[in-house]
Amino acid sequence: MNKKLIQHCKGLDRKAQREMVNHLSPFLFPICRRYSKNFEDAKDLLQEALILIFNNMEQCKTAEVIPFKSWCKKITINNALAKLRKKSHQTEAISDTSVQPSAIPNIYSQLNIEDILKLLQLIPEAHRTVFNLSIMDGYTHKEIAGFLNIKESSSRTFLVRARQSLQKLIKKQGNTFVAREEE
Amino acid sequence: MENNNLENNIRDSFEHYLPQLDNDEIWDNIEPHLKKKKKRRFFFIWFLGGITLLGFLFMYFSNTEVPPTQYHQANNKSEAIVSSKVSEDPSIIASSTDSKIEQAIIEKEYPTSKTQAIIETSYVVQKSANTSSPLSINSDFPTVENEISISNDKIIPPESMVESTVLENEILEQEVNVVAEKTIKEELTAQESIVEESPLVVESIDEDLEEIVEEIKEEEKEEKAPKVIDPFKNTVRWFIQPTASAIAPLRILNARQGFGETNYLKERKETERQLEAFAFGLNVQAQTQRGFVMMTGIEIQRLNGRMDFEEKTETQETVVGIISTTENALGETIRVNSGLKERTTRTTRAQRYFNHHTFVNVPIGIGKFWHKPKYDLRFMTGLDINVYHNFRGLIKGENGDLDLRHKESAAFDQVFKRKTGLGFWLSTEFHKPMNERFSWSIAPKIQLPFSKITQDDYALRQRFINISLTLGANYLIQSKKNKK
């Protein structure tokens, strides 16, 4: 990706947009994956994010690569959050469901990305979202509160609970990832 | 510590996460939803302009004939030449050879009536000198009687002249010698002597000839300019054209790009109506010999609109009234509690305001002119350059209040442009000539603005497409050349 490619994309050049998909997909897909339940949902999120990015590129004032990537990331996260909000309206409030030990992945040998994703899926959605926004994407609690329309204190609480849930899940397996890391 | 390790590990895992994605499939899914590249805004305009220009060029090269002098109406008092050159040499006598005589006659195409009379007389003279020729019996040959009967107002068609010349040439082939390089008078004198000998001569011509010759000489000395205006003699004819137009304005009001149908837009559409418009203009048109027309001028447009505004007021007051009543089992009121209570009055007052837009445009156009037997037709197209825009009136603001906007107010610049830019126009003018100089015109016209009249960052975009009917009076300005 370079400045020229970004400018071509702003000019709605189809070839440049196609090229940009190759650059943006590996960068944005992990973000989508974190905010979605499964691979297919993540793919849908990615496609929606790409459409939003390409159709609103004139609003991105910079053509520099790093700010552009940040802008794309922000759009992707915003889109994911909008989806979650929409979903929360359609479904009942997320309850603090207990962890299903049977669904715990085997993390004795190595905690790979799929295991992490599965672990993340096991914690409540609100907790997971706050965890993603705070730990993975680096937003402050004030910003998260704004995004999710919750109180700052709630955001902090959700993060603490998310951490506890993750640790609990790992410990329940008997051989925690944390312990392995310390060794 | 545990938390940090866990989080760092998760971050690292995601950083090195390389998903197996089919980018082609993703692209195929998203491509139909992507915005298409905007066609250039002016493409259509340039296309239209190009087509128009090509049309004109085609007409220019396909119609090289000079239009006939249909504007000319023969003036009985005038003996001016309409569209031909009067030979400076009035002598009709050439050298002694026949061919020279023929040449001299051909050079005198389109003679005036009096000149014609002399030329025709000379035919007779020539003919009479050849009465011995068997060809002279030819009945087609113009006789003296025929020539005298020619009206002074008529123009001899060149075809008959050529025909006569050919016949004359045939006659003169019988070795007729004519004295060369004589003046008209001398020639006529010579002719008289011949005429006397000729059996075809009519005596009455002799007296007339001298008078005619004298008159012609006087005229040539004076070199009077023709009194009849010849529209096609000068290369460009200038018209001045005051106009008045009735306009049906079509208001285009929409939200800024990407904002969709906003509530504010809906409110404005519901409350505002564009009523009518009118315009006055003064144009100068230049019409070339080939029928091309160029014009410029100034036009003042006034667009009037109406706005219905509902003013809602709410007043609260404390009044004395019944607060509660107590009824018995039979429904009879047994006790009434009265006291102070709050009363709210809501009033809705419908108000009507009239808004006015004023535009001053400078139209520049080109066109083509066609002359028809009963009317003239001009097809014109060009650009309107807006040099001034003003708005007086009230519009409903985004906050629901009424705002006063006019040129002098600071708020004006937040909403409207002071100069709205360029516009395209197209019209077809029907001209009804009343006399040589004056004609009435009626012209349906459409005006399409290129740009909006509102500011770029204003919430709404507004423009007017005008369909109008223009009445005009056209006056042909006499050129300096003719005045001299």
What would you note in describing this structure?
The complex is a heterodimer of chains A (183) and B (484). Chain A is an all-alpha fold. Chain A has 2 domains: 3-90, Rna Polymerase Sigma Factor, Chain: A, CATH 1.10.1740.10; 101-182, Winged helix-like DNA-binding domain superfamily/Winged helix DNA-binding domain (Arc Repressor Mutant, subunit A, Orthogonal Bundle). In chain A, 71% of the residues lie in helices and 0% in strands. Chain A is elongated and about 50 Å long. Chain A has 9 helices and no strands. Chain A has helices at residues 3-10, 14-35, 39-55, 65-90, 113-122, 125-136, 141-148, 152-172, 177-182. Chain B has 484 residues and is α+β, with helices and mostly antiparallel strands. In chain B, 29% of the residues lie in helices and 37% in strands. Chain B contains 12 helices and 9 strands. In chain B, strands 1-2-3-4-5-7-8-9 form an 8-stranded antiparallel β-barrel. In chain B, strand 5 and strand 6 (402-405) form a beta hairpin. The radius of gyration of chain B is 43 Å and the shape is flat. Chain A binds chain B through residues 11-14, 17-18, 21-22, 25-26, 29-30, 33-34, 43, 46-47, 50-51, 54-55, 111-113, 116, 135-136, 163, 166-167, 170, 177-178, 181-182, and chain B through 2-3, 5-7, 9-11, 13-14, 16-19, 21, 23, 26-27, 29-31, 33-38.
Helical content class of chain B = 25-40%
Unreliable sequence segments of chain B: 64-168, 170-176, 226-232
- Form type of chain A: elongated
Largest two-chain interface: A-B, 35 and 27 residues
CATH class call of the domain at 236-308 and 352-483 in chain B: Mainly Beta
Instruction: Give me the number of helical elements of chain A.
Output: 9
